Amino acid sequence: MSRMSPEKARELRDGGRRRTSAFTPQPGLRKHRELRFHPGLPQQVEEARKLLAGLPDMSVDAGLTPASLSLWYNINDYTFEGIVTALKRQGFRLENGPRARIARALIFFCEETQLRNLHGSQRLIKKSNDIYSKAWEHHPHGDHDDTPPELRQDK
How many CB atoms lie within 10 A of CB 35? Predict the structure, then answer.
């Protein structure tokens, strides 16, 4: 009988999805975010779960706390800012302490920056090398000295 590795056990436990924290660097397009609701309104968590689970390519699971949900999505399809804005327009109240607001703002910024970098105009790498080479040709460098050789000698 073979022994199960810790990685395999975690994979089975998480249903193939790796559980990560909202602050763990997530360099790929697939994101895992923790959406925290106002603790005084537990019924909103289940309503939001049903609403978000109906979206295509969105995975929703119970969060780390009773007043939270874990979301998995691709940032080409959804952004955390878009999800939060849509839920607020529907009347959902999220946790609104200073720490929660800062965490959301940081996630909004990171995803916006990643999307801008993914879909922004791409530089032509080969052309940039030519540009630097031509600029270097016109730049005085090395032992370049405009003084005539006869005046450069020490007497």
Answer: 24
Write down the residue that tokens 């399809």 correspond to: 77
pTM for the whole thing?
0.64
Is 52 in a helix, a strand, or coil?
Answer: helix
Count of beta carbons in the 10 Å neighbourhood of residue 78: 20
- Domain boundaries, given as residue ranges, for the chain: 11-125
Residue type, 48: A
Structure tokens at 83: 């999800």
CA pair distance 148, 79, nearest whole angstrom: 65
C-alpha to C-alpha distance for 15 and 111, rounded to whole angstroms: 25
CA distance 6 to 14: 12
DSSP assignment of 43-63 equals HHHHHHHHHHHTSTT-EEEE-
CA distance 80 to 63: 15
The secondary structure of residue 118, as a DSSP letter, is H
Q: What is the C-alpha separation between 38 and 31, in angstroms, rounded?
A: 23
Strand partners, 74: 30
**72-114 pLDDT tens trace:** 999 999 999 999 999 999 999 999 999 999 999 999 999 999 9
* 3-class secondary structure, 154: coil
